[in-house]
Design brief:
There is one protein chain. By secondary structure, the chain is of the alpha+beta class. The chain is built from 19 helices and 14 strands. The strands form 4 sheets. Strands 1, 2, 3, 5, 8 and 10 form a 6-stranded antiparallel beta sheet that branches. It has a 4-stranded antiparallel beta sheet with strand order 4-9-6-7, with no helix packed on it. It starts with a helix and ends in a 13-residue tail after the last helix.
């Protein structure tokens, strides 16, 4: 066994051990063996920390020192409970920086803002616990009887009283992890001894190879119908179907209808397009996919675990696992059967560019830019539009990289790619999405790095100069006329955005960036200023724009087989986890993290290798992985979004890695 295989197995065992140890630690400390919720302390609602800084009556927040100042007697402030659950048993009030112990009165109000009951409390630094009466609580009013200075660290409503302290967690976790490591060594020793006594020879990858033969036989039976189509015709049809795959999720979004029937139809349409592309691309008798390499194994185990979770949780057939195992696998097989695999990559990138130009024309005539609002583009949400932009940016970067070394760089190709890259940056600035900006910078970093392994020739230097010159021309044209065109041309058609499509530059409701009110001199105008404020604010809530609270809620709800849907987070709103890994663990259980992280790691590794071995459009595979990972750290990357689709399609071009076999 080589060092790579040993390292992979060690990483898998370590990841599994960490997750299992966390699960057992949570069960031990909470005193509950509950596979549906390891952190079994009942429902709890974390009030958003953004509200801790709001003003009240003789109650003000000092951003310079991060504390609340009350003046005079009976200073008060309202805090509204936005959770769908209104009946609670305990209130946890965590206070810091309290200058002196003081008497507080807390009033609990109903939906009509009328008093339910009152509790008096002598508040001290640290955790203060109040037991509550029965009744549905819609708001609380905190009244500080004497002048005071303090900071609110946390306001929590709980069903059950927390029966452990967080300082118990590290030592308990370490003991459980040590026990796991010892158990692994003991089992490993017994297995080695048993194999030596029985003289067993391991047979690896049998089930994966059997599945590959089944896929190949089905492709052989139906693919023969498409063998008579010439290559040029196949290329045109592939572009058409790739464009359809990219348009289906967008059309569904614009319809605003995500019922079960619509989701089923969407998946069926996508599967049909993927199968048609696979059948047109299949070259009979060529099977170059090694289904025993780590990337393929991780991908296959991931979606089998998803399938099991769907069955256990009783989900209806709407999961992406059906799409992946039932259609995407055929595309991977067909892709790696082609003598010239770059043809399929070229068609996919062409479809992405066609989509962008069609969307840009649509924006120019029907999506006006309004000063004071973040630009939402072809979507009704600026973050979604920004994620779409940085995904499409991959197509232009990969195509430009592939053409830089050519002896004759066509003017049309040069103009299309440079103009695309410049206009994407223009649109991205207007969306003011920080996460997408980070993904954009990461893509350009990969692009610049990808130029170094290439052997430089005179033609490369000449083409590079032409690219720079064309870029300057496009920057001047777009910079001068871009916003003017977007602001005025749609007015000719009297087009206006709907109210729900307007996202202000500042405000507490935006998850892309959360800033203070403009009156507190924290309002940010422009992407660079907003980014500066996030970094210098010194508050976790501002830095992550409230995502840290969402992540904490999702981590608290980990279980063995996942949940049926998204969780209530950030003021009781049901929303995505804003992190691809946490979302997978929420949907399909805690151990889905193992194959998912392995798949991400090997897609990066093989993407880097594709650049070094000078694989045709090799930079595309690395860019797709980087884009998906960076966006997945802090934004929604739900199934059938562009970053998700492009990444999982791109995996097919990395499946053939025979030197990594027998892991």
């Amino acid at each position: 066994m080589n060092k790579t295989n040993k390292g992979l197995k060690f990483a898998i065992l370590l990841m599994t051990g960490i997750l299992l140890s966390w699960m057992l630690t949570a069960m031990y400390l909470t005193g509950s063996i509950n596979l549906q919720c390891f952190y079994d302390t009942g429902n709890l609602y974390d009030m958003s920390s953004g509200y801790y800084r709001q003003p009240g009556i003789r109650w003000s927040y000092d951003p310079a020192v991060g504390t609340i100042q009350t003046e005079g007697e009976e200073a008060s402030c309202y805090f509204y409970v936005n959770s769908s659950q209104k009946s609670w048993n305990y209130l946890y009030l965590t206070i810091g920086d309290l200058n002196k112990n003081s008497q507080w009165k807390i009033e609990f109000l109903d939906q009509n803002n009328e008093l339910l009951f009152t509790r008096n409390l002598e508040v001290q630094n640290g955790r203060n616990i109040l037991q509550l009466q029965e009744g549905e609580i819609y708001a609380i009013k905190i009244i500080v009887r004497t002048p005071s200075s303090f900071s609110i660290k946390r306001i929590q409503f709980r069903e059950k009283e927390q029966n452990f302290e967080w300082n118990q967690v590290p030592w308990t976790f370490i003991r459980v992890l040590i026990s796991y490591v010892l158990a692994v060594f003991i089992i490993y020793g017994f297995v080695r001894h048993y194999k030596s006594v029985r003289q067993l020879t391991p047979r690896k990858g049998i089930w994966a190879l059997t599945m590959q033969k089944a896929y190949a036989r089905m492709l052989d039976c139906v693919g023969a119908l498409f063998q008579g189509i010439p290559q040029k015709g196949k290329s045109g049809l592939r572009k058409l179907f790739f464009l359809a795959i990219l348009l289906i999720p967008y059309v569904t979004y614009r319809m605003g209808n995500s019922t079960l029937m619509v989701v089923r139809r969407e998946i069926l349409l996508l599967a049909a397009c993927l199968l048609l592309i696979a059948l047109m691309s299949w070259e009979q008798g060529r099977q170059r996919v090694d289904w025993t390499n780590p990337l393929v194994y991780s991908w296959m185990i991931l979606w089998m675990m998803v399938l099991v979770s769907d069955f256990v949780m009783g989900r209806t057939i709407q999961s992406a696992s059906i799409l992946m195992m039932g259609a995407m696998a055929f595309l991977y097989m067909a892709w790696n059967s082609m003598k010239r695999t770059e043809r399929l990559t070229r068609d996919l990138l062409a479809a992405l560019r066609y989509l962008y130009w069609a969307g840009s024309i649509y924006c120019l005539f029907f999506r006006p830019y309004e000063p004071g609002y973040r630009y939402t583009g072809i979507y009704g949400n600026s973050n979604l539009f920004a994620g779409y932009l940085v995904t499409v940016n991959i197509a232009f970067l990969a195509n430009l990289s592939e053409n830089l070394g050519k002896e004759k760089l066509k003017k049309r190709v040069l103009a299309e790619n440079v103009l695309g890259l410049v206009t994407i940056w223009g649109f991205l600035q207007m969306t003011e999405s920080v996460t997408s900006l980070v993904a954009y910078v990461a893509e350009w970093t990969v692009f610049v790095w990808g130029q170094f392994p290439v052997e430089k020739r005179k033609s490369y230097q000449r083409n590079l100069k032409r690219v720079v010159a064309m870029s300057l021309i496009c920057i001047v044209i777009v910079g001068i006329s871009g916003k003017w065109c977007l602001s005025n041309i749609p007015r000719v058609w009297e087009v206006q955005l709907e109210e729900q499509e307007r996202q202000p530059l500042t405000g507490q409701n935006s998850l892309s960036l959360v800033t203070e009110a403009a009156g507190q001199n924290a309002a940010a105008s422009g992407l660079s200023e907003r980014l500066r404020y996030k970094i210098t604010s010194g508050e976790w809530f501002d830095l992550f724009a409230g995502r840290d609270e969402i992540w904490r809620n999702y981590i608290r709800s980990w279980n063995l087989f996942g949940h049926y849907g998204n969780l209530e987070s950030l003021d009781g709103k049901t929303m995505h986890a804003h992190n691809a890994l946490l979302q997978m663990m929420n949907d399909y259980g805690i151990f889905i993290a193992v194959p998912f992280l392995c798949m991400l790691y090997y897609s990066l590794k093989y993407g880097i290798k594709a650049v070094f071995v000078k694989k045709k459009f090799g930079l595309f595979f690395l860019l797709a992985a980087v884009n998906y990972i960076v966006q997945g750290l802090a934004e929604n990357t739900p199934y059938l979004s562009y970053s998700w689709l492009v990444y999982y399609i791109a995996l097919g071009g990395l499946f053939s890695q025979p030197e990594e076999a027998n892991v």
